[in-house]
Amino acid sequence: RHQDLPAHISAMDVCTIPLSPPQWANIALPNKFFEYSACKKPILSRPIPDVEAIGGDHLSIYRDDEEFVALVGEAVRRPREVAVDAERFSWKRRAAEMEAVLEDLTR
């Protein structure tokens, strides 16, 4: 259930966005990014242009298996408080942004 997501995400040391193949990454902005960010969790992601564009200090990009393993190891060895403006990624704010876009389209 969707309402259980915060509890599950909070139990994670690090969250991943392993989106592949690359052609999907060029047209994607996964909901996972917003869910993880709202829970103030560090995120490891494959290179996804839109995620990189809005990501913050809590986002690390990996390009291969070795980088992924190294970043997971680092996150587990040195857990850190993630400074994320969680309100920026809330569903309430996302809905307001979408509503504004739809209103602009109907003018």
**What separation lies between the terminal Cα atoms?**
37 Å
Domain count? 1
Cα-based radius of gyration, to the nearest Å: 15 Å
Average pLDDT works out at 84
Work out the number of β strands: 3
Describe the biggest sheet? 3 strands, parallel
Residues in helix, %: 40-55%
Query: What is the N-to-C order of secondary-structure elements (H for helix, E for strand)?
Result: HEHHEHEHH
What is the overall number of helices?
6
Strand order of the largest sheet: 1-2-3
Structural class: mainly alpha
Model regions low in confidence, pLDDT < 50 over at least 5 residues: none
User: Beta-strand percentage?
Assistant: 5-15%
Shape: globular
Protein name: Glycosyltransferase WbuB
Description:
The longest helix has 15 residues, at 91-105. The protein has one domain (2-105). The protein is built from 6 helices and 3 strands, in the order αβααβαβαα. By secondary structure, it is mainly α. The chain starts with a helix and ends with a helix. Helix content is 49%, strand content 8%. A 3-stranded parallel β-sheet has the order 1-2-3, sandwiched between helices. This is Glycosyltransferase WbuB.
